[in-house]
Amino acid sequence: MTQATDEKGYAADMHHSQFKPNDRLKQLIGRRDWLTQNHKKDLYCDNAEFLIYHWSGKSETFAAATGDNAASEEERINIGDHTCRVDVGGPFPYLDEMPSKVHGNEPTVTSWAADYAFFLRHSDAEVYPHEQIVGEFHWQLDEARSYKYPGSHAELGHKARELGAGGFSLAHTCPDLAIGLKLGWGGLLDKVRASRGKHAAYGNAKSVEYLDASEQVVLSVIDYVQRHATQASMLATQTDDANLKANYELVAANCANIAQKPPSTYHEALQWIMLYMIVERINGHGNGYGRFDQLLNPFYQADKAAGRIDRERARELLAEWYLKYGPHLSYGGRREDGSDATNEMSWIGLEAYDMVGGYNQFGVQWHSDMDPEFWAYCNDVVARHGCGVPALLNNDVMVGSQLRTGFPEAHARNTSYSGCQWYCIPGREYQDQDVNCIVLIAPMQRAMNLAIEQNVETWDEFWAIYCHEVDRTSDAFVDFKNEAYKYHAQLWPEMITSLCSHGPIEKGRDLTDFDSVDYNYPSVNVLGVPNVADSMYAIKRGCFDEKKYTLQQLHDACTSDWTGEGEEVMRQYFLNLPKFGNDEDSVDAMAVEISEQVRETTEAKHCIKGGHFRPSLFQFQGHTVAGPYLGATPDGRKRAEPLAHGMNPMHGRNTEGLLATANSFTKLDFNKYQGGSLQIELHPSAFGGYDSRGDMMQQFSDVFFAQGGVQINLNVFDLDELRDAYENPEKTEYDHIVVKVTGYSAHFTKMDRQFQKEFLERVNYTKLN
Amino acid sequence: MTETLTHIRLFDIQRYSVHDGDGIRTNVFLKGCPLACKWCSNPESQSFAFEKTYNASTCMGCQRCVEVCPTGAMTLEGPQPKGTCTLCFRCEAACPTASIRRIGQDWSIDAVLEEVLKDSAFYTVSGGGVTLSGGEPLAQPEACGELAKAIKQLGLHLAIETCGYAPWAKAEPVYRLCDQILYDIKEIDPERHKRFTGVDNALILDNARKAAALESEFIVRVPVIGDYNDSQDTIQDIAEFAAEIGAEAIHLLPFHQLGENKYHRAGLQYTCNAYTPDDEMMRELADVASSCGIPVQIGG
Question: What is the pLDDT of residues A712-737, one digit of tens each?
Fold first, then answer.
């Protein structure tokens, strides 16, 4: 079923890599490309509301592809090839036999675990030719188990949406794989049973119930891993091809070794993580997997010392791992003592990507003491491949924001990039990263209405009203989230992630529960900060300082989308006022003030699980559809235009070039936020030759990070090609183009058309100046 | 810091330039040029006076400019007799779409320094700095010298893009302050030079000889203009001259048609019919130059 990619199409050749895939990898690359090109890896959500508010009012998370929780084909929006799941069409074949269908669906961990165990025991162990790392799944549990919070939750959700907020709670954290790699599934089972015994002795029925459920889950995983060994052995007996036979036997041996015991080699460790990821992602889309070089280096070094492996082989296996699915993970960073953590595996991690290229999600955590050669190579890789991999991150700012939140140094130092713009202490956080949202346009619009009603005459009065409205939105958001947290652990526990976290098994409480992992400071994406900053600056100048127009006139113009008489002249006036992103202090100061204000407001709100709420100056895709949804804004934006992407300047309003934008960006103190990526789209000509690309990238990233920037997503592509791809969807010659859409990567031609269009519009820096 | 009294007339400051000189640079464009090259891609740089440009493609015809114009120079019916406009720029202030733009501002040296210092961190990591360009920087020799001195006092790398058409006594002190001199030579033949640029090249070539002998890195830059100076003979003449005077390298810059719209906006006629030499042709010319015994680079 695979279609081979022709010779010239390999990323290693197209992007001038010195590492070339061998014939076996070429087969696997062919399959990867076939799967994405045929829409087998797509992720969906219900509707535009989901993108804007991260809650659709229908599904409780991203839309299930099939089953009771599925979205209608007409309405759903394709987020792109961003899922580990491989679509084979049709619903889960044993749908009607699910325990919850047969015995009734209870919102309890017992009912959930019974479904999970049944589901996994009825999921095939899949082994494909040429693979040396196996694991693939076709349905998520939410396609087979219905999933609904009580009505009180939806009620608060609709109220929050009315005021401009929303969110869901599922995954989007980062387990600590070191736990599982050390214990293996058998060790985890023992740990669950031992904890159960302890809790039973003290009469803690609730924890006993949880650990009984967890035991069923672990047993089903052991069976699932073992079945891969059985399947591979069976395939080995059925083939006469010596190479394939050897592959199958290798897979069989590895899977048999790790079904219960912890992995003992580098290859087994990669296989262990792959199957862990699969049994975890069956549970729902979205986690990161931590600091891969730190996790894998002990295995690699031991193998190398024993003469079992060399760097080339290690690279080949990691490349194969990437080809199956490239989730969010990280390289680099510091050790606990503050020294540079870069090791040989960090290099292999980058080299493996350099060899296979394309879709991937990992990041590199720069810091001022990082091995300069490694950092140069990271810049070289992202500049040559040009599709946002690796994401470049500032470790020290990430860790700084964790310390500022109050996490102890020993934990904070281990922070790993784990998603679009977010990061996590593996195994110690459950903070809903990236799945909550405050749409800042909404309180601003209400503030305008109220100020008109109250005949407000000064900016200070207007600002006070705005602050009050941001507070109202935040309150509605917090009420909604806190309602979800009351039910989450029973309704949709995350037992696989809990197994590799610090606390849940010991306490017999799911990771999603109260008093389980150490840190519960939910993150909230803030959508529209640059538009609100530009708009508030425009209001201040135009309606209060210069008094060119009244608030009423401005309000009417926004309502009519600037189509009334004289309103285009008015729009041009507002449009041509200074805008964020041009290193212009007046309006940049407004952007800082707007960000600080929403931060102070959300940080003052209490999560019933313990911590406060932490804002992130980012939102993954809502800006594409939020424009038409929310209407025209005082920054001169027409209704049809998208909002600004994350904290990036509004499309087309940054006229002073990349360095000016970088300077505007770093006027914000990113230690105070949970991420805020700078997205850069460059035309290849900006770079000149392939040899100099890395240097030019590094010159920029060094300074940006020294000034306190936190993340760079770089895309390099020819705008004309992308435009042609958009205008001629039937052309397949652009199918290979991967872009870092926001915090995640996807194949351009496989994205929703609206996303494609927005992506073309946002291209900011076709030249460096 | 006390504000210096000297002002310098600029038409632009461009940050993050990576194609003019080493590393990441800020280009400071001085207004006014003694030459009038037919292919000039910055026609707004030629005159020493302030100018007004009008971009018809963004104008929405609101007539705000017409209403505020005190001399009746602004109409939407087309250009008015020369001299009617007094360059008061009320029209610019009134224009909601920024379709009317004033070209040229008098900057204090301190203000220029403040601007160029914004990217100093980028200069450090990339080995970049500031480039004085134009127009012709030496056409404002005193201000240019003062700015150059101040930039060097800040320890920044300084380059100058110059056509060399200035009295040596004025040019020398500025050149001496520069770490790198990017010296334009368009033509060796005096008659052709005059025809294309409006001036004789004796002074330019004489100054080149002297500038090349200074300590600063001296590079000859040739804008290769299709149909003007793209013959192998012309390039050979220039390369031989460059080699003879001891230039470190010669850079051949293929002409790009970027300026035409600017002519229309400034109400000027575009009389140049130059074309862009293709890659193959550039390689051939580079070979010719190289055979004169001097390192050659295509592009800046």
Answer: 999 887 878 888 888 888 787 788 78
